[in-house]
Design brief:
- With about 325 residues, the chain is α+β, with helices and mostly antiparallel strands.
- The protein has one domain: Sulfite Oxidase, Chain A, domain 2 (Alpha-Beta Complex).
- It contains seven helices and 13 strands.
- The longest helix has 7 residues.
- The two termini are about 25 Å apart.
- Heterodimer of a catalytic subunit (MsrP) and a heme-binding subunit (MsrQ).
- This is Protein-methionine-sulfoxide reductase catalytic subunit MsrP.
- Its cofactor is Mo-molybdopterin.
- Keywords: Metal-binding, Molybdenum, Oxidoreductase, Signal.
- It catalyses: L-methionyl-[protein] + a quinone + H2O = L-methionyl-(S)-S-oxide-[protein] + a quinol; L-methionyl-[protein] + a quinone + H2O = L-methionyl-(R)-S-oxide-[protein] + a quinol.
């Protein structure tokens, strides 16, 4: 269950959670400059230390955004992934994602905002102190994990980009680079690349929405969406777009990748909901990883993935069987 006690920014930095598997990764950041105007904000905490490969991140633990459920082991979190840019097998991202270079990295900001431009990733991150949030992740395929993410509230970034009153939605886009992402050059892929996702503005500004740059106390592994990904824990996992290179504020609801590919199966909202089954399987239960043939570790799925107190009001009056 979600622990409601809210933390103080005065909490000390946490100790790094031990892990059993070390992953070799490419350099995470470099000192590139933003094309757009600087985003310095007075009165914030000291700048977060920019991450480098294999190095622990300093962060503030956030008990108010945690759970008392057992965390999924690091090995499972990093070896069982959906990241079709590297293949459709669950092990393909861990096998091939090191072909992607995340140094340097920039994010293009465009649309209905007062601070558009191409920003070096560190210029989006460095005014903020990193937080650790332990969230449940529920895949639409009916498996789940509990992951300690490191990152920054999405709302903190979006506010600094100064969206205008015309901004009703936020669009996100993943890197498109077939030379580095073998799944994008596959002749068998049915996805119209690049991967696209979106949120309603009030969803994006919700306190749970998170931009993650690491997990288990260290920089984000490539296969988990390095160097920066979205985490929206009350929605199915495909909404938490990986390796973000574009953010657009817009008035019209964006089309999203899985919605375009199979609209009868995947909707724009994609809220975790055991009352609305996928056309090909039930959503009433989930398999919590790790699991096996003799120990499948099934559990009942909870509406909004257990975060209803924080997000249910966003959908008041909506028919969630229609707006799935």
């Amino acid at each position: 269950m979600l622990i409601k006690k809210r933390p103080s920014w005065a909490l000390p930095h946490s100790e790094v959670t031990p892990e059993s598997v070390y992953l070799n990764r490419r350099q995470f950041m470099s000192g590139t400059l933003a094309v757009a105007a600087g985003l310095s904000v007075p009165g914030l905490l000291s700048a977060a230390k920019l991450p480098v490969p294999g190095e622990a991140l300093d962060f503030v633990p956030m008990p108010g955004f945690s759970t008392d459920e057992e965390k999924t082991p690091f090995e499972d979190v990093t070896r069982y992934n959906n990241f079709y840019e590297f293949g459709t097998g669950k092990g393909d991202p861990a096998k091939y994602a090191d072909e992607m270079t995340v140094d340097p990295w920039s994010v293009v900001v465009e649309g209905a905002c007062d601070r558009p431009g191409a920003y070096a990733l560190e210029d989006l991150l460095k005014p903020h102190e990193y937080q650790e949030r332990v969230y449940r992740l529920r895949c639409v395929e009916a498996w789940s994990m509990v992951i300690p993410w490191i990152g920054i509230p999405l709302a903190d970034i979006l506010k600094r980009l100064e969206p205008t009153s015309r901004a009703k939605y936020v669009y996100f886009e993943t890197l498109y680079d077939p030379d580095q992402m073998r799944g994008q050059r596959s002749l068998f892929s049915t996805i119209d690349w690049p991967y696209q996702e979106g949120l309603r503005m009030d969803e994006a500004m919700n306190e749970l929405s998170f931009l993650a740059v690491g997990l288990y106390g260290k920089t984000m592994p490539n296969q988990n969406g390095a160097p920066i990904r979205l985490v929206v824990p009350w929605k199915y996992g495909f909404k938490s777009i990986k390796s973000i290179v574009k953010i657009r504020f817009q008035e019209e609801r964006p089309k999203t990748t899985w919605e375009m590919l199979a609209p009868q199966e995947y909707g724009f909202y994609a809220n975790v909901n055991p009352e609305v089954d996928h056309p090909r399987w039930s959503q009433k239960r989930e398999r919590r990883l790790p699991s096996g043939l003799l120990s499948p570790n099934y559990m009942e799925t909870v509406k909004f993935n257990g975060y209803g107190e924080q997000v249910a009001d966003l959908y008041k009056g909506m028919d969630l069987s229609k707006f799935y």
